[in-house]
Amino acid sequence: MSGQHLLSVADLGADGIDEILQLTDTFVEVSARPIARVPALRGKTVAFCFYEDSTRTRVSFETAAKRLSADTVNFSIATSSVNKGESVRDTVETICAMGVDALIVRHRSAGVPWQITRWVDATVINAGDGGHEHPTQALLDAYTIRQELGSVEGRKIAIVGDVAHSRVARSNVAAFTALGAEVTLVAPPTLLPPRLDDWPVEVSSDLDAVLPKVDVVYLLRMQKERMTESLIPSLREYTAGYGLTRRRVDLLADDAVVMHPGPMNRGVEIAAEVADLPRAVVTNQVRNGVAVRMAVLYLLLGSGVDLKPEVVGA
Amino acid sequence: MDREDVHRALRRMAHEIIERNEGRLGEVVVIGLQTGGAPMAEALVAALEEIDEASAPIDKGTIDVALYRDDIGLRPVMPEEVTEIPVDLTERIVVLVDDVLFTGRTIRAALDALTDFGRPRSVQLAVIVDRGHRELPIRPDYVGKNLPTRRDEVVDVSIDGVELGEMVK
Asked: Is this complex's ipTM strictly greater than 0.85?
């Protein structure tokens, strides 16, 4: 990975993704030690700027930073001066003036992490920006597939659900296809992006037909507000057409795995009992997430592989 | 040193380790530093098990100390191999193995790293080549060969021999 920031999977390329996944092996081992902490980023400070709710991503990044011995600073929207009308620029400039090496940014608008790189010298890591990207989620998903199935290359992966509003889907399509997987998007037409011409994917609206052919079925969270936007008739109807029910699991190949970025809506996109099957590797995804984020933090803040700062893909 | 010299040195070091830890070889864990020390540790374990068959198999592991180095941020530092220490090191006798002992900074990092795997009874250091120029108060317990060098020279150690070369600028 070259560059000072991690803003999108698209910027990494296959080699950049591969470098991160290889380094992740090291941090999986570190995380399994009796004392799961290395001094690699001693003296570095990582600040969290989450303008949108998140538990797992923030905790995962925070755990990753702490296992690398970095100091962490939390900036929580609820108690911050954002509520007094402070702009994003003023907020991040203030935090950076306190001496911060990296900002982990989540924001409801696409492009905010990139915009922040223009204002501050700190390393910026995108932890989800609007409907754009969530690169570390895609990296941990690719790592999990590699761990479960040996490789991503040549695998057939179905991404099912609300692709239109999903930054996870966008990042995962970029990562999976860069690594040589064949991706099929499965969703009702109303939940697909309006233009898919330049996406290197197949599209289907028949989940039953797709399931027997895939190695991985990746379920996206069904955001309940989509119903009020009239994009689907009802959650029950969505489940009937696109939910991974117990019956549908039997259509899968024996070694196919089920993935979900969380938080799961049990009974909507995934049946409660399906989420607890051994082939549902959601917990492994979460565990690998910490190690992948350690790899990203170490590459950007510690490795010195690129001592000349430059913005990837700016 | 050629292949035969390296082999002889490893065998002599194995004898010294057995002598120094007499009756306690079962407590020894041989840990090779990635990447140069790992094949040397393998060879040393093979020699130990050959000389003292009753102690076989001897516990072994490898460690990559990149994340403990004191020059992170000053030069590119990347872990190259995944650390494998399959046993708790508490109350064990650790024999750290590296190919070349130079400034001592790698060993300093390794000593820190080891403490994350338990509290060894003792740690001993075995190196194939001691080339001098120490920057920290660290000394080896077992040495294959003392090789006086200039700072800008490069020492290349493998199972097949030891070569001294000029640094490629």
From this structure: yes
